[in-house]
Write a structure and sequence with these properties.
single chain; 60 residues; alpha+beta; two-stranded antiparallel ribbon; 4 strands
Amino acid sequence: MAKCENCGKALTFGHNRSFSKRATQRTFRPNLQKAAVWDGKRKVTKVLCTKCLRTAVKSG
């Protein structure tokens, strides 16, 4: 499933709005990336959204 392993951000649904304001279904997909993250003393591959990945890099 397309879901961030840190924050749980996943697929959400909404509407496309045309010029005439007609609503059609659309999906919002999170920007997920595979990343190697340190979990204690070992390296683990996780699927993270870019916001969590950026926070992990900033915090060290």
